[in-house]
């Protein structure tokens, strides 16, 4: 191999190295951009998940409260009806 051929080979290799370094840098930038997008999506997912959990907890609380109030209302009505029945029964007994 002559000096000229060696110099040409060296330039070709240097050009390929430069191209590969540019590709590596571009891939690093792409990976960083994708990481940012993924982090943002993950953050949004966590926010939505937390909102859903809060809404579920609120729904459960209101549901339990409604059930308790309904039971109290039914028990109160039963008590009133029992008292009314007893009064009517006593009146009819006289």
Task: Summarize the structure in words.
The chain is rod-shaped and about 135 Å long. The protein has 1 helix and no strands. 97% of the residues lie in helices and 0% in strands. The model has no long low-confidence stretch (mean pLDDT 91). It is mostly helical and 94 residues long. The relative contact order is 0.04. The chain has one helix at 3-93.
Features:
single chain; mainly alpha; 94 residues; 1 helix; 97% helix
Structural class: mainly alpha
Q: What share of the residues lie within helices?
A: over 70%
- Rg from Cα: 40 Å
Proportion of strand residues: under 5%
Task: Summarize the entry for a quick read.
With 94 residues, the chain is mostly helical.
Spell out the blueprint of helices and strands.
Elements: H1 3-93
């Amino acid at each position: 191999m002559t000096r000229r051929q060696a110099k040409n080979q060296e330039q070709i290799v240097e050009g390929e190295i430069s191209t590969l370094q540019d590709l590596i840098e571009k891939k690093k930038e792409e990976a960083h951009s994708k990481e940012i997008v993924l982090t943002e999506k993950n953050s949004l997912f966590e926010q939505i998940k937390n909102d859903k959990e809060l809404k579920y907890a609120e729904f459960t609380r209101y549901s339990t409260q409604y059930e308790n109030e309904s039971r109290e209302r039914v028990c109160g009505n039963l008590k009133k009806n029992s008292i009314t029945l007893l009064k009517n029964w006593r009146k009819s007994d006289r």
